[in-house]
Write a structure and sequence with these properties.
This protein is an alpha/beta fold. The chain contains 17 helices and 14 strands. 40% of the residues lie in helices and 19% in strands.
């Protein structure tokens, strides 16, 4: 790992990295993330780096966006040069709503990644999509271009819940889109759920789970609603129009998800993610959770290469202007201290079904693990084999377990 940089140090105009970072890149795998910041409308709970046409005010163009991303990709190719990675293991196109771009543009971006570094023969290539932003024809175009996995934002099957979240698709559109993706030949299809929305009943969430299972997908993500400052949902709660989410309700919903998905043949592999098989797990997210390297393309995207972490300017107009001037869009970069790296490693790997090796903990952390074991939060057989693996109850209290392992 390169020597520590001052926190938030500016990124060089040419985007260059310390030599030690480029020598280490790809040792644990290499992925590419592409951020597409456009949305047709803003959901009330969302605080992601996304923009509607009105919010952009004409300052950036969907039509030219693929070319702008390809310009950053060319810069990335120059920065890494002939050093590894020589193959890209995973690509994840997220947003925003990536499928607001024409399918041909998403295909061009993927082809550019392949030209720059080469896609591994078994590369996982994912795009996120809102259900209303895809058609059978666009899905077939994406699949023919090399996309192997699609993640659809369903959130709920209950019309009232979708309305509170300001989701624009109809209650049944997500599962229909999942079936269309299967018909188009996607290897893996994910549906995202959000639980704990004010007004959501237990039977609403049960119906959502039933529809997910019936859609025949092989991956499900389910997240508790988080109310972020600055969102419309947060403003409505401050005004008293809606109640704040309940931790007890969220726990009940999580247990319902585990029961329904387990009965349908899914297994958890990360606290909020279930898959029908090991092959169906999201390899790109596993790359993040296990400390591998990735280059993030797009406004606000984060990257991690050889121990150096940096992030791009957030606004699409500024991002495009930097690249048009031949400069890196990177805003700032840092290297975690050993203590910070250890903390992140524990936080992320403990959330995985594979767990965390006990030998990475210091004496205080081992004492915390023993307390978690005694409290039924860690699985006894795995603990005896030298790993900290959360039980079902431990998953409900994962943050508390992490705090006990990081005294």
């Amino acid at each position: 790992m390169p020597g520590a940089l001052p926190e938030g140090e500016s990124v060089p105009r040419d985007g260059s990295l310390p030599a030690a970072a480029t020598r280490a890149v790809g040792a644990r795998g290499f992925g590419v993330y592409v951020h597409v910041p456009f949305c047709a409308s803003r959901c009330g709970y969302c605080d992601f780096n996304t923009y509607t046409a009105a919010e952009l005010g004409g300052g950036a163009s969907r039509e030219s966006y693929a070319d702008t991303v390809l310009a950053e990709l060319a810069l990335a190719g120059r920065v890494l040069g002939d050093t590894p990675p020589r193959r890209v293991d995973t690509v994840f196109v997220g947003g925003g709503t990536p499928t607001l771009l024409p399918a041909d543009d998403l295909a061009r971006i993927l082809a550019g990644i392949d030209r720059t570094w080469g896609l591994a023969a078994d590369a996982e290539v994912t795009t996120e999509a809102n259900p209303e932003s895809v058609t059978p024809e666009s899905l077939k175009t994406l699949r023919a271009a090399g996309y192997t996995r699609i993640s659809l934002g369903m959130q709920s099957a209950a019309p009232g819940v979708l309305a509170i979240l300001d989701r624009k698709h109809s209650a049944g559109r997500a599962t229909t889109a999942a079936l269309e993706a299967r018909d188009a030949g996607f290897d893996h299809v994910n549906l995202d759920l959000i639980y704990g929305t004010p007004g959501e009943r237990a039977e609403d969430f049960a119906a959502s789970l039933e529809q997910v299972v019936a859609a025949g997908v092989d991956h499900v993500s389910a997240y508790a609603l988080i109310v972020e400052d600055g969102t419309r949902l947060a403003a409505r709660m401050r005004r008293g129009e809606l109640p704040y989410p309940s931790d007890d309700v969220a726990a009940d919903r999580y247990l319902a998800a585990e029961a329904a998905l387990d009965a349908a043949g899914f297994s958890w592999y990360e606290v909020s993610n279930w898959a029908r098989s090991a092959a169906a797990r999201c390899r790109h997210n596993l790359l993040y959770w296990t400390g591998a390297d990735w280059w993030g393309l797009g406004p606000g995207a984060h990257s991690h290469v050889g121990g150096v972490r940096w992030w791009n300017v957030k606004h699409p107009t500024t991002y495009a202007q930097r690249l048009a001037a031949g400069e890196s869009p990177g805003l700032a970069r840092e290297v975690l201290t050993p203590d910070e790296a250890h903390m992140e490693d524990v936080m992320l790997r403990l959330r995985l079904a594979s767990g965390l090796p006990l030998d990475v903990l210091d004496d205080a952390g081992r004492a915390g693990a023993e307390r978690a074991l005694a409290g039924g939060l860690l699985a006894a057989p795995e603990y005896a084999a030298g790993r900290a693996v959360l039980t079902l109850r431990g998953r409900l209290l994962a943050d508390a377990v992490v705090r006990d392992l990081l005294p």
